[in-house]
Amino acid sequence: MTQQTPIRRVALSLAAAGVPPLPLRAGKVPFGNCHVCKGNACGGRPNMKTPGPCRCPDPCHAWAAATTDPAVIVSPPWAAAWRGAVCVGYHPGGAGLTVVDLDDADAIAWARIALPATRTVATTRGEHWIYRGAMRSVNAVRPGVDIKSTMSYARYLGPGTGTMTALPDAVRELTVKKRPTARPAPHLITLPAGIGGGECRHRTPTYLERGIAMAEQRITEARSAVHTTVYQTFLAVLSAHGRCGCLTDAHVTRLFATAQAKGETVRHCADAWTNARTVLGM
Fold first, then answer.
1. Which of the four, 117, 135, 174, 182, has the lowest number of CB atoms within 10 Å?
2. Does an H or E element contain 129, and which?
3. Is the pLDDT of residue 192 over 50?
4. Which DSSP symbol is given to 150?
5. What is the phi-psi region of residue 196: left when phi exceeds 0, alpha when psi lies from -120 to 50, beta otherwise?
């Protein structure tokens, strides 16, 4: 019997658990189509977008090569691929799973607020949150967040920690395309007692309007760390305009709507606003 490499042993273990593995080459990408199937000339495979009669024995067709059949994994046609593999990938949708790929600390902070806890696997830069249930895969559903499930693959980085929970609607909703005219409903709040009533330093409404416009621009132009930008912007607005009574519900609604347009949740906006008020003693 051929001696198994550590990578192939992991693949066989995953297959035994019902998770279809596939070899990943340098760059953590699947092996490309073989010469016969190059450019999908074979017509594809039944589980691909383009159905076809292809029965290629080589591990081509990217994620569609993932299999739970141990005989295929140890077969000679796959031997070269496993020898050249640098790590193991798997097809989450084939196991009835969905991976929420959080690429950085800001995305993780968002998930801890917006999504229910589930099994978590640490990655090089972030985390994989794994849920029971499959759905379509979509990249960049919000900054630093990809959805990997059907017709996609994820790198296997270990079993992770925590209890796997059912795929929530909050994850499915991330892939729903919003119409260009549709905008998250602004969260209306009432300024609590204690804000306002101080001496107004704004001799003209222009000063306040300019400040709100600059705050909106700062949030809109944020390319990363959106959570932090929103909080710091709220803090700056409250510091400059929060004590004199000029800041109204209409101004706050504008700020919340701008943050929501960048993908922030109503809850995060409210938390950021409350935290800023607390820091300023309001």
1. 182
2. strand 127-132
3. no
4. B
5. left
Report how far residue 195's alpha carbon sits from residue 204's, in angstroms, rounded to the nearest whole number: 19
SS3 content of the chain, % helix, strand, coil (to 5): 40, 15, 45
| Four-CA torsion 252, 254, 260, 261, nearest 10 degrees | -170
Angle, CA of 63, 142 and 135, to the nearest 5°: 40
Provide the 10 A C-beta neighbour count for residue 255.
23
Q: Write phi, then psi, for 11 (nearest 5 degrees).
A: -60, -45
Q: Residue 164, SS3?
A: coil
Q: Amino acid identity of 160?
A: G
Tokens linked to 251: 């101004």
pTM value? Answer: 0.61
Return the pLDDT at 52. Answer: 53
> What Å distances lie between residue 213 and 14, 30, 208, 252, 276, CA to CA?
53, 47, 9, 12, 19
Mean pLDDT of 149-162: 94
DSSP string, 47-83: TSSS-------SS-SGGGG----HHHHTSHHHHHHHH
Give per-residue pLDDT as tens, 66-88. 999 999 898 887 888 888 899 99
Top mean pLDDT of 160-174, 211-225, 238-252 is at 160-174
